[in-house]
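## retry 2 of 3
previous attempt timed out at serialization; input unchanged, resubmitting
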Amino acid sequence: MSTGLSIGQVAERTGLSVHALRFYEREGLLADRVRRESNGRRVYTEDDVAWLAMCIKFRSSGMPLDTIRKYTDLVRQGPGNEHDRLALLRSHQDYVTAQIQELTECLNVITHKVDVYSQRLAAGTADCLWVAPSSTTDSAAS
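## retry succeeded, writing output
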């Protein structure tokens, strides 16, 4: 009996499918090689689960697989490349910050429109909001 986690347990804990876990392993996205039992079954550690959780956040934030792979390779190389790791992380941090700013601007527009519609509906004056142009109206004037 192994003391590690099965691929099914890791899938359940991370929310990744078994297929996705195999893909991550095949693509070299795990910091450590996954240990195998004598029968060939994968045995994961708590460190693997923590690493996968980080990779999931990287992917959710838009980090490309190639960048995750590069970061993983740097970590595997060990001490001495911390500046490279930091540069990679800062670059992605800048990307995420820009995305958040863009989404905040989008949310502001949506919030404004929700407020306008709510006020107009409450006042009974919503019938004139963004009326679709008639088929005879010049579309350039819309």
